[in-house]
Design brief:
Elements lengths: L4 E7 L5 H14 L4 E6 L18 H5 L12 E2 L5 E4 L10 H14 L2 H5 L3 E7 L9 H4 L5 E6 L3 H18 L5 E8 L4 H13 L4 E5 L3 H8 L4 H4 L4 H15 L11 H15 L8 H15 L3
Parallel strand pairs: 1-5, 1-6, 2-4, 2-5, 6-7, 7-8
Antiparallel strand pairs: 3-4
Keywords: 4Fe-4S, ADP-ribosylation, ATP-binding, Iron, Iron-sulfur, Metal-binding, Nitrogen fixation, Nucleotide-binding, Oxidoreductase
GO molecular function, one term: 4 iron, 4 sulfur cluster binding
Family: Belongs to the NifH/BchL/ChlL family.
Length: 301
Amino acid sequence: MTKTRNIAIYGKGGIGKSTTASNISAALSEQGYHVMQIGCDPKSDSTNTLRGGTFIPTILDTLRTNRKVEIDEIVHNGFNDILCVEAGGPEPGVGCAGRGIITAIELLASRNVFEDYKPDVVIYDVLGDVVCGGFAMPIREGIAEQVYTVSSSDFMAIYAANNLFKGIKKYAASGGALFSGIIANSINQTIQKDIVKDFSNNTGTTIAQFVPRSLSVTRAELLGKTVIEADPDSEQATVYRKLAKTIIKNRKKYVPSPLEPEQLKEWAERWSDSLLGQKDEISPGCRLNYLAQEAEISSGN
């Protein structure tokens, strides 16, 4: 590639954003791309599964030592030579978490990190519960050329995605980043897929891919690895590889049409009504397992 692709992946906390970002990075590295992943979440755990479950020093923690920061202190090699960076956050109870992202990105730019390391793709893994301050920087400053959001069919995930759309719409006229698609995560039921599709239709957005919930992810993360590394022949690894290829080929960049609060409320209520009488699609084996666990808990064992 002749030009670095800067891609921001947003999503509410706990939605699987970092899991998705890391598996995309791992899949892209397999496909021959030189990848850098920058964790823009104060939890600083974005790159853990790219480094065997280990935490790396964050930019903000390193800056707090009040000495000259060497680049190799904040840029670390991970799986398949993926470059791993964590912005970090303030000390507990002090400062603004979003400010860490601003400081980190400014430092990386001022020290010519991108020019020196020459990544083909930079993945920004950004907390998407709020789109303000530093969390909005990849969008507001147009640092990311394309923005994706990881969302399930749950309302709070949809709500966070809708807020992200508002941020993109606000900054689009002044050169902000544009949207490229929803990554629908933890989608195992037809009704879940229908909910996300309908939200996408109502906001004028597209769906990059549906990603099922899988125990392959749980097993891999218990080992501190991505699915691509820990279970490369699994169906879930195939899903992530396909998603990575889709993202690289995708050239869609557009302004979403977020729903207003009352519209979102009405939309949610319609789906709530349609779910009345719906049964969870749980296999008989899983249901028996749940019942056995409940019986064990009830007996005090």
